[in-house]
Design goal:
This protein is α/β, with parallel strands linked by helices and 383 residues long. It contains 14 helices and 11 strands. The longest helix is centred in the C-terminal third of the chain and has 27 residues. The model has no long low-confidence stretch (mean pLDDT 85).
Length: 383
Amino acid sequence: MKTYTNTGNKDTRSGFGAGLTELGKTNENVVALCADLIGSLKMDDFKKNHPERFFQVGIAEANMIGLAAGLTIGGKIPFTGTFANFSTGRVYDQIRQSVAYSDKNVKICASHAGLTLGEDGATHQILEDIGLMKISQSNTDLYLKRHKRNKKNLSKVLSSLTEKLELKKAINLIESYDISHFSGKKALAGQITYNRTGKVKDLYRTYNISKKNSGNDIGSMEEVIERRFSKKDRELILPSLILIDGSYTHLKAVRKVLDRLSVKGVSLLAISKGARRKPEMDLIHTETGKKLSLRKNSPEFLFIQEIRDEAHRFSISKQRKKELKGASKSSLDTIESVGIERKRALLRFFGSFDQISKASTKDLMKVRGVGKKTANIIFNNLH
């Protein structure tokens, strides 16, 4: 058993500061970020010894976590420092999305946990910090379990699905479609593709839905399938399986189009929300009209959900980009007090320019950065 010699008592913060400084000397990729609490976190020596690798972010903890996550992309190992409340509660969303889900190597360091900041009051105290981080870890573990499969495991999942669906041909290529729209208008469909090694982003496509089908989910799906499998696209490799985000009714509509176009050898599967819209209650529909029975945490069930979620993410992101691109051509351009950032804020809040034009002055003021004066200007220019 290794023996440790006591070299003197020292508070935890000072130990952290000394350790960080020493680590900075041995690893040039170590960087430090602080939210205006250099003295409290004992980061003074690191800043003095490695000024080019120290970032004073100020009282902007969320920005600090986002910046730290970004630094990891370049191979840096960031250590962030602030009080426990501001390291967890205030920045939970940034940790969850930018660090945990993205699997970034960020070291989140904190001091003054619990009730130790008595003199600073309840705003600086936190008791649920460890609980929040445990929840984030649990959710991330589930995410990684679903999304980080190696090629061997994915191949096994597809082979298992082939067997469970009683298909004559192995599943080698899967396409999935999702319809996205703003309040029933400007509908867009996203098509994503998976093979036995994962996503094939070169085969991702989008389709603008015609006005006659915009707002009609089944009509939109029929239009997309018609265009995808029309004669001019026949030279493209056909998928083994199409996964539809919808019910058995959607599945039957797609089959009808494929039969009309004489498309052979393509199997269909649909996934829809179940009771209380909980993910574990999702329903998987087969062409026989029966539900596919899978264990709720089985690799096959999670993989089908993953494809559906990826199609939804892709179509939504393309829809938003399309709408933002149109921002430069909207009637808001004629209003001097509305720049591109304010236009984006308005669009995010209302969803479309049609909804912005219908908003009252009071509604417009709910948008961050839009005061009464600006709201009146926007309203008067749009009416």
